[in-house]
Inverse folding.
């Protein structure tokens, strides 16, 4: 058994990473330490001031482990990797996992290319970005191919010159075919230089050049060509508008600001490259608890720059971040050049920081309003339902449905709603084992018996081990059971629950003749509710979800060739006779109810086969 106090005495006086585990062996927190012995002990010292979030985390620690590193910076890198891999519950997590597009110019090649990429490598290419819009990058690349006629093929030049015919881009005048030697290396390089100038923000030259060509074409009465140049000029201006100049020093920097409310925070980031605002983005952080803004920004920096290939020279933050020196050293090594953090207090940088902060607040406000609407359709709907049926404390609802093909391979679905929202991780599906033919009541009885018997067994096992029974989808029982049907299905459920000694309210989700939900059958009466109420909409979603899940499961089995007609199990029935029976009777239930004489009337069905069919269905019913 792990003795925390004894293990604390063994902690080394070295840097490293520690991992906190709960009693289910899950990693619930990962942290780094300059001195493991000092940092880990703080979690278990009485009277040591800790946040409520960390206090709660400590109460769930069953044991810990640690990894020794050579330096604090190595510990930082390892911590980032472990957080990304395990996503511990009590670490502040970056919800978004985005990769940004870049433009790559392969200047190391004799005949360079201009390419779209999401990966920045340490090669000799030049990278421009990151951009927040992949569409804008593709539009820029298309423009550059039209204006500068730069190749985008994978041919190795000059080695492959003349080996193959030029591609279609040469035919549509978007490439000068260096693969055929149609342009010299020097002239091609001059096109690349102009393209790089354009990516660096020098749009004046390209506009002057295109305007001159448009006017010349117009003078020569080449109006179609002039129109093409006019369209290119508009494209350049449109791209230029997306790159608003906000700085004049031409530096690369990211601006990071935060807005916080409750257990949610939004981090807003502005990307400035060569003095131009290329774009801005926002990121949601969860599990922040009562963490300070500076701590949240630090967690964001670790996770964001761990997965982002481009590191700017300067990072502006709304507040001073903890571990600033080690973060600067880490990012400097990652970038291969000096990286500095700065908290702007005045001037243009401070104004940009204020803009980023307002952007974060605006996003958080919109998300809060969205959350309120979501709460109305979920938690609000549950409260409405509680009032309608007179049951308090409804949290978990389970619904069941049956699906089959011609009475064979019956399956059941179990879907779960918690606090009015689908909890798909707890959905379950059942292959019915004991029922042959279309008998929904007996199928439902088997599914419910298996579901609750399984849950009772798991609860007993967990209780015998001294563990909490509130762990899985089977051990947790519903506050109300929703049956897809009326009085008959409700009585089946009540019978199963009574036999197992369980007291769980049961409602029937009743549909009209058009298969639309019209009310709930509860305590021997049908309860109607307004069709525009959130409770009505939630019950409809629950019923539709149970039906959808059952149908999809059945379809998946059928696609694997595992589902066939019940008739296939009868001796003497093959594809031809099965088809004849279904054509004559139209329905399995009519075949089951038919007499031997009526079965013999079907073309191709002999008396012996008719007796086999009759015996099969009547023996199944015994």
């Amino acid at each position: 058994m792990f003795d925390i106090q004894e293990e604390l005495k063994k902690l080394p006086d070295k840097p490293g990473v520690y991992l906190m585990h709960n009693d289910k062996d899950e990693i619930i927190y990962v942290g780094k330490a300059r001195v493991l012995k000092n940092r880990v002990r703080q979690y278990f010292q009485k009277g040591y001031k800790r946040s409520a979030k960390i206090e709660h985390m400590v109460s769930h620690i069953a044991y810990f482990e640690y990894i020794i590193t050579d330096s604090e910076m190595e510990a930082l890198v390892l911590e980032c990797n472990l957080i990304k891999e395990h996503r511990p519950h009590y670490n502040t997590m970056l919800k978004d996992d985005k990769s940004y597009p870049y433009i790559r110019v392969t200047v190391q090649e004799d005949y360079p290319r201009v390419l779209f990429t999401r990966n920045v490598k340490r090669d000799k290419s030049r990278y421009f970005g990151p951009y927040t819009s992949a569409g804008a990058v593709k539009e820029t690349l298309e423009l550059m191919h039209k204006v500068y006629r730069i190749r985008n093929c994978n041919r190795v030049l000059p080695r492959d010159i003349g080996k193959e015919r030029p591609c279609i881009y040469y035919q549509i005048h978007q490439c000068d075919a260096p693969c055929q030697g149609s342009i010299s290396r020097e002239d091609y390089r001059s096109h690349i230089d102009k393209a790089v100038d354009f990516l660096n923000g020098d749009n004046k030259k390209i506009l002057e050049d295109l305007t001159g060509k448009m006017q010349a074409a117009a003078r020569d009465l080449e109006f179609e060509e002039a129109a093409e140049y006019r369209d290119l000029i508009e494209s350049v201006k449109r791209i230029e508008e997306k790159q608003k100049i906000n700085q004049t020093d031409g530096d690369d920097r990211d601006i990071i600001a935060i807005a916080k409310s409750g257990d949610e925070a939004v981090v807003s980031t502005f990307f400035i490259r060569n003095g131009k605002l290329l774009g801005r983005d926002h990121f949601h952080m969860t599990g922040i608890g009562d963490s300070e803004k500076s701590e949240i920004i630090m967690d964001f920096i670790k996770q964001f720059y761990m997965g982002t290939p481009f590191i700017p020279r300067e990072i502006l933050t709304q507040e001073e971040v903890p571990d600033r020196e080690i973060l600067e050293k880490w990012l400097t090594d990652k970038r291969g050049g000096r990286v500095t953090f700065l908290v702007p207090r005045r001037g243009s940088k401070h104004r940009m920081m204020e803009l980023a902060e307002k952007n974060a607040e605006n996003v958080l406000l919109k998300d809060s309003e969205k959350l309120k609407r979501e709460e109305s359709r979920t938690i609000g709907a549950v409260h409405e339902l509680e009032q309608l049926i007179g049951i308090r404390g409804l949290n978990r609802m389970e619904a069941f449905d049956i699906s089959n093909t011609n009475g064979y391979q019956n399956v059941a679905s179990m879907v779960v709603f918690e606090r009015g929202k689908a909890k798909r991780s707890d959905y379950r599906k059942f292959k019915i084992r004991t029922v042959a033919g279309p008998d929904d009541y007996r199928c439902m009885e088997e599914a419910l018996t298996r579901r609750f018997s399984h849950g009772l067994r798991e609860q007993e096992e967990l209780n015998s081990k001294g563990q909490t029974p509130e762990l899985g989808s089977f051990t947790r029982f519903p506050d109300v059971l929703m049956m897809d049907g009326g009085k008959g299905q409700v009585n089946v459920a009540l019978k199963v629950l009574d036999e197992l000694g369980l007291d769980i309210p049961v409602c029937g989700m009743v549909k009209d003749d058009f298969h639309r939900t019209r009310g709930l059958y509860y305590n021997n009466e049908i309860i109607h509710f307004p069709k525009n109420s959130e409770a009505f909409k939630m019950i409809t979603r629950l019923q539709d979800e149970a039906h959808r899940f059952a149908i999809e499961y059945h379809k998946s089995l059928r696609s694997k060739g595992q589902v066939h007609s019940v008739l296939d199990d009868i001796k003497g029935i093959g594809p031809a006779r099965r088809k004849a029976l279904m054509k004559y009777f139209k329905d399995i239930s009519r075949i089951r109810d038919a007499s031997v004489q009526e079965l013999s009337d079907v073309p191709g069905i002999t008396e012996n086969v008719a007796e086999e069919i009759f015996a099969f269905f009547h023996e199944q019913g015994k």
